[in-house]
């Protein structure tokens, strides 16, 4: 493998006397593709299947620059010369192996959050989840315990990138995205099922179930502190409305998106949904429509109309 050969040749020439920073910097630069590999950049990228329609590993030579970028990111997070040398001696052969290693290095306690981040971004075709604040709020909704706890909020958006590292990126418009199409390709593939990172596999059906549960749990568990009733909202002037929307976004970043829970539930039920997931969603919907929880209908709004009307219309239309 040309790139790896260049690394090791260059790195072996760096010896005693260099500071850790110098060694690290030179070794990271050594990962840049050499002239012999630059021609691959414009090479046609084939589908990740062979002529028999079978999955095949994502080769270094299909995406050499992406492979190199991942190695640079991984090495950039190491702290000693010894760690760097060890990593360079164990470079992965393919992007599949690279992604598997990255996923398995995510701390166990953060893996569920990482999985949700990747699901939200991978299937977000219209950019709703490009807002880092919205993503950060959505992924701390516990769809296993069916709770939302504000104390679990991240201190800042950097946590998203520290957890998912080079699998996600922030663009020039301050939108968070999957870093490269090959990340999603790996996560949805059958190949990941046979790896140690199998728990990170994603699918459209699981994505829609996640959205439905997240919206319903959020609406059931937030405090609604500072949110006015639909009637009071309708009577606000434009200036008050602007201030109110700022307050809502600052304190409940996912609320506006959660209001579309009806669409999310319908999307989840129209796909391949497990019986237990459907039962959970039905229970959450029943809880939201419970007359004892009228605070949601009273506090929510969409376009100067009481959201309660939409809730009960949906409940009647699905009888």
What does this molecule look like?
The chain has helices at 2-12, 20-30, 35-38, 64-76, 81-88, 95-104, 111-122, 132-138, 158-164, 181-188, 204-221, 230-234, 238-251, 255-258, 261-270, 275-289, 295-299, 307-317; strands spanning 168-170, 176-178, 301-302, 305-306. It is mainly alpha-helical and 319 residues long. The strands form two sheets. It has a two-stranded antiparallel ribbon with strand order 1-2. Helix 11 runs antiparallel to helix 15. The model is unreliable at 1-21, 31-54 and 301-319 (pLDDT under 50).
Strand order of the largest sheet: 1-2
- Report the total helices: 18
Biggest sheet details: 2 strands, antiparallel
Name the shape in a single word: globular
The tally of strands reads: 4
Q: Would you identify the regions where 5 or more consecutive residues have pLDDT less than 50?
A: 1-21, 31-54, 301-319
- Calculate the terminal CA-CA distance, rounded to whole Å: 62 Å
Strand-residue fraction? under 5%
Query: Structural class of the secondary structure composition?
Result: mainly alpha
Task: Provide the residue-averaged pLDDT.
Answer: 76
Relative helix content: 40-55%
SSE run: HHHHHHHHHEEHHHHHHHHEEH
The Cα radius of gyration reads: 24 Å
């Amino acid at each position: 493998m040309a790139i790896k050969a260049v690394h090791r040749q260059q790195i072996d020439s760096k010896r005693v006397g260099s500071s850790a920073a110098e060694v690290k910097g030179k070794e990271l630069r050594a990962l840049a593709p050499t002239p012999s590999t630059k021609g691959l950049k414009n090479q046609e990228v084939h589908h990740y299947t062979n002529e028999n329609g079978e999955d095949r590993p994502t080769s270094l030579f299909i995406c050499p620059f992406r492979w190199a970028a991942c190695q640079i990111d991984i090495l950039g997070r190491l702290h000693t010369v010894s760690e760097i040398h060890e990593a360079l001696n164990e470079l992965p052969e393919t992007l599949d192996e690279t992604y598997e290693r990255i996923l398995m290095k995510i701390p166990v306690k953060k893996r569920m959050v990482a999985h949700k981040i990747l699901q939200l971004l991978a299937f977000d075709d219209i950019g709703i989840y490009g807002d880092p604040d919205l993503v950060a709020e959505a992924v701390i909704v516990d769809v296993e315990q069916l709770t939302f706890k504000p104390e679990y909020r991240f201190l800042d958006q950097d946590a998203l990138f520290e957890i998912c590292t080079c699998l996600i990126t922030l663009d020039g418009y301050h939108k968070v995205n999957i870093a490269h199409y090959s990340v999603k390709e790996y996560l949805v593939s059958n190949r990941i099922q046979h790896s140690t990172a199998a728990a990170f596999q994603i699918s459209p059906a699981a994505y829609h179930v996640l959205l439905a549960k997240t919206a319903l749990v959020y609406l059931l568990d937030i405090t609604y502190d500072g949110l006015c009733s639909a009637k009071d909202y309708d009577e606000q002037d434009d200036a008050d409305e602007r201030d109110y929307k700022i307050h809502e976004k600052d304190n409940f970043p996912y609320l506006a998106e959660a209001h579309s829970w009806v669409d999310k539930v319908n999307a989840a039920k129209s796909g391949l949904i497990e019986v237990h997931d459907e039962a959970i969603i039905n229970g959450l919907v029943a809880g939201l429509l419970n007359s004892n929880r009228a605070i949601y209908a009273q506090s929510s709004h969409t376009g100067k109309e009481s959201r309660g009307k939409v809730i009960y219309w949906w409940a009647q239309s699905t009888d």
